[in-house]
């Protein structure tokens, strides 16, 4: 009997419900692009010493501001995270919760693929 079980994909709900593998990183006074091997289930971003920004994928002009002292959880499927600390002494930290789904399964999109603002 072969053991060629199918690999988990984006529609595999259990991958998003189970405990995920954490990927933790931070940046001080700089910009950092994190390219992941696996798709995220959630991403937690925190800023201290001042506000920072985060965006996912190729949507640089659509950054989300993280207020100083805040930790914000995003329920997003992504394979790229860009965190920006744009001031002296500002730390932006990220904890990405990774599924077992290969990032090759997630097509790269930008914000305009999903909608636009007039």
CATH topology of the domain at 29-103: Jelly Rolls
The rounded distance between the terminal residues' Cα atoms is: 57 Å
Strand fraction equals: 35-45%
Helix/strand class: mainly beta
Order of helices and strands: HEEEEEEEE
Contiguous helical run count: 1
Portion of residues in helices? Answer: under 10%
- What does the average pLDDT come to? 87
Supply the CATH architecture of the domain at 29-103. Answer: Sandwich
CATH superfamily (homologous) name of the domain at 29-103:
Jelly Rolls
- The total count of strands amounts to 8
CATH class of the domain at 29-103 equals Mainly Beta
Task: Give the overall shape.
Answer: globular
Rg on CA atoms, Å: 16 Å
Low-pLDDT stretches = none
Provide the spatial order of strands within the biggest beta sheet. 1-8-3-6
Largest sheet, in brief, is: 4 strands, antiparallel
What does this protein structure show overall?
The chain has 118 residues and is mostly beta strands. The protein has a domain at 29-103: Sandwich (Jelly Rolls). The protein has one helix and eight strands, in the order αββββββββ. Strand 4 and strand 5 form a beta hairpin. The longest helix has 5 residues, at 13-17. The radius of gyration is 16 Å and the shape is globular. The chain starts with 12 loop residues before the first helix and ends in a 16-residue tail after the last strand. The model has no long low-confidence stretch (mean pLDDT 87).
């Amino acid at each position: 009997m072969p053991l060629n079980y199918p690999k988990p994909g984006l529609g595999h709900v259990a991958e998003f419900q189970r405990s995920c593998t954490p990927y933790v990183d931070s940046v001080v006074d700089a910009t950092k692009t994190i390219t992941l091997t696996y798709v995220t289930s959630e991403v937690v971003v925190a800023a201290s010493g001042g506000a920072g920004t985060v965006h996912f994928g190729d949507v640089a002009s659509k950054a989300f501001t993280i207020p100083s002292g805040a930790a914000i959880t995003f329920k997003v499927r992504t394979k790229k995270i860009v965190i920006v600390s744009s001031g002296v002494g500002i730390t932006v930290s990220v904890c990405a919760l990774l599924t077992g789904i290969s990032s090759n399964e997630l097509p790269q999109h930008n914000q305009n693929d999903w909608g636009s603002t007039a």
